[in-house]
Structures are given as C-alpha cells and as structure tokens.
Design brief:
The chain is α/β, with parallel strands linked by helices. It has eleven helices and ten strands. The strands form three sheets. The protein has a five-stranded mixed β-sheet with strand order 2-1-3-10-4. Helix 6 links the parallel strand 6 and strand 7. Helix 4 crosses helix 11. The chain is globular and about 60 Å long. The protein starts with a helix and ends with a helix.
C-alpha cells in the first residue's frame, strides 16, 4: 500500500473514531404545550399585575414557543398555589409567581408537606416595597399622627391586608407590638381589593405595595405616611422611612418565578433564560422603576441561598409574633 493511501485511511479512521467518541448532546428544552403560570394571590394585586405584565412581554417579544397562561390561586394565603405546584403532573410546564407567603405559609401550615427548597429557582425579578396608607379624609398626615389616632381608637382602627399571617399581617403585628397599638387586621384575597376597601373607607389603613395603591395615590384619595424601606423611595421622596421615625425595621417582598418540584434541569435553564430576557426588556425595567421595585435578577444557587435566608428570617418573625411555636 502506498504511503498516500495509508495516510488517507488513517485520517478516515481517526475521523470515524472521533465521531464515535464524541458525547451525544442533549437537546435543549422547548415547551410543547401552554405553560401553567400560577399566581399565589388574587386579581388586582402586585403579584397579579406583575405576572400579567410578564405574560404580555413574553407574547409581544415572541420569547416563548408556547403561551404562558396566568391562573390565580389565592386560597389559604398561597396554600392553594403551593399545593398545586407541589403536585404538578407536568413539572416542566408549571411555574409560579411568588410572594413572601412562599416562606410563611409552609411554616404556618406544616401539614401541607411543602419544602420550598425543592422548587426550581427560575428567577427573582425584584423585591417589592411597602408603605403605610390612610384615606385622605382621616385627617392624618404623618406617622406620629397615625400612632396617636390608632392608639386612641384601639381595635376600632382596622388594617386591611392580603391574606392571614402574610406580609401585611407581619407588618401590622410589628406596629402593634412595638408601638403599643391594638390594630385589628382583616385579610383579603388580593392587594387590589385591599386598596379598594381603603378608598371606600371600609378599613382605616393598609400597607399596600406602591403598584397596588398608586392609582388612588395619584387621584389624591390615599396618603402614604411611612415607607418600610432602608432609604426613601424615589417615587415618594417626601415620605420618610420608618427608620427615620425611630423604628428599626424594614421589610421587602420577593417577586420571583419558581418552577414545580421535579422540573428537569433543561426546563429550569429554559425558564431562567426566558425570564432573564423579560427582566432585561425595556418594558420590565420601566415597570420596575415606576412601581418602586428594587433588587437585581437572581437565579440558580444564589436564589436558593436567598430562599434559605428569608425562610429563617420569617420563621423568627412568626415565632416572635406568636403565629407559630
């Protein structure tokens, strides 16, 4: 055999061997049917508005091969949504928008048998903020005035909030225990309903997120008295923080997307990439700025570490308030 032929056969053999030796690549995940997009709160609140905005961004920018379909499951302060996701028959097509009830509800209801660390960490889109709101006709224009009037009325002063032992309830408990108040707390299905109840003066205050009360603030019906943040919010530069008023407390709400337990790594990567694109869109950045949302995008192990920290913090808060032992 000539040297030329021997060299040719050697090259062919090497190419075949290389092809056989190469690992088979795993096909990237693509949804094959509509994606179940669960919202663990009622219609009209911050979580609902956020989810439907993200849905519209995905549709308008043609980011997903299949539609994302929002479904509200507010029952039991998010228990309905958590149980639905925990038992999802198709984890690769089931995702959820969360609130801090993602942390508190499994702690308060251990019988749900829900471990949040088993959920897929798709992406934290922001942290939402809280303000204390009153109706303009209350004649209250400062936090000190609020404290005086609320103390005088006792349980006749009523705070409306989203869910029982939820974020709003936690802030109400803090005010009661740290300022000698006896505010009565009434839970509603969503923040939108809470804002409407305050405008209708069926309740006397709320701690709505900015997005939930903004329209009524702009119309002049609601007045923000204090922000539960570390620094003043750019949208409300004249509203002091609780820390400025002498209180050592700030509180934020997770606005994240999680996947059902059992979601494949390929699907989790797909959804993290999808919501990274949503986060980077002009529409989301505008919404984030206009609604006083804070925080950067977070996913993967970083998001799981954040969950672990927040779960421990909320466990301490709930124990201090007597909500759990």
């Amino acid at each position: 055999m000539s040297i030329r032929k021997r060299t040719l056969f050697t090259m062919i053999g090497a190419a075949v061997l290389a092809a056989v030796s190469l690992p088979t690549s795993v096909a990237a995940f693509e949804p094959t049917k509509p994606i179940d997009f669960v919202i663990m709160a009622g219609k009209g609140g911050g979580a609902d508005k956020m989810a439907r905005l993200m849905q519209s961004i995905i549709e308008q920018e043609d980011l997903s091969a299949r539609p994302v379909v929002p479904t509200n499951k507010p029952g039991g302060s998010g228990a309905e949504a958590l149980v639905h996701l925990n038992g999802a028959s198709d984890p690769d097509h089931t995702i959820m928008v969360t609130l801090n009830s993602f942390f508190t509800t499994p702690l308060r209801q251990p019988g749900l048998d829900v471990d949040i660390m088993e959920f897929a960490p798709v992406g934290r889109m922001a942290e939402d903020t809280f303000l204390l709101w009153v109706h303009k006709d209350e004649g209250v224009s400062s936090f000190d005035e609020f404290l005086a009037v609320a103390k005088e009325r006792g349980d006749g002063w009523v705070m409306g909030g989203t869910g029982k032992n939820s974020e709003d309830n936690i802030i109400t408990d803090f005010l009661n225990s740290n300022y000698g108040l006896s505010i009565k707390y009434i839970p509603y299905a969503g923040g939108g309903e809470v804002a409407k109840q305050l405008v209708g003066q069926q309740i006397t205050s709320s701690v709505n997120n900015p997005s939930e009360a903004l329209g009524f603030f702009e119309s002049g019906d609601l007045i923000p008295l204090v922000a539960f943040t570390d620094e003043r919010l750019p949208m409300f530069p004249d509203v002091p923080t609780l820390k400025e008023s002498g209180g050592d407390f700030s509180y934020f709400m997770q606005r994240a997307v999680v996947g059902a337990p059992g979601m494949s790594d390929e699907a989790a990567t797909y959804y993290s990439d999808l919501f990274t694109k949503v986060y980077e869109s002009d529409a989301w950045q505008e919404y984030k700025s206009s609604k006083s949302l804070m925080g950067d995008f977070m996913a993967g192990d970083d998001l799981k570490a954040y969950w672990d920290t927040q779960r421990a913090r909320h466990e301490d808060i709930l124990k201090a308030s007597g909500a759990i032992n």
